[in-house]
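Researcher: We plan to redesign the surface later, but first we want a full-length starting point. Tokens attached.
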């Protein structure tokens, strides 16, 4: 299973953004990553300085959202929707899209994914797909 390091993840996003800005061909997940980055102008300056981006720490105590975690969650959701895993996530996303813009729908799911991953980490287990989908269904009801 692919398990990139913190530096590899950060350099991946920086490189995808560089290639996008320079109008170079994007490959595989770089296409989705560049689209996601384009939707987050607040991250552009950081991603345009890869060496600083690799070194910077983002801590809850500092009140900073980790942009690489945020973009990685977006990327994971795009992948989940494309393959409908966990089963039902695509239908839930489509239902959210009937009342929310694309980015808002993704953010509703992103909050659930982040919460579910955090819970799994705290419990020392794996992600509970049913709990995740239930959270997304609750977001639909709001």
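Model: Full-length starting sequence:
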């Amino acid at each position: 299973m692919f398990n990139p390091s913190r530096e590899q993840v950060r350099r991946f996003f920086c490189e995808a953004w560089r290639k996008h800005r320079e109008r170079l061909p994007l490959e595989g997940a770089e296409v989705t990553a560049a689209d996601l980055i384009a939707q987050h102008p607040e991250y552009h300056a950081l991603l345009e300085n890869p060496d600083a981006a690799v070194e910077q720490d983002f801590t809850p105590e500092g009140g900073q959202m980790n942009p690489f975690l945020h973009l990685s969650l977006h990327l994971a959701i795009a992948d989940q929707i494309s393959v409908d895993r966990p089963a039902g996530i695509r239908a839930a996303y489509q239902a959210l899209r009937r009342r929310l813009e694309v980015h808002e729908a993704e953010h509703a799911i992103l909050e659930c994914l982040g919460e579910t991953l955090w819970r799994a980490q705290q419990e020392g287990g794996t992600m509970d797909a049913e709990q995740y989908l239930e959270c997304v269904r609750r977001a639909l009801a709001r």
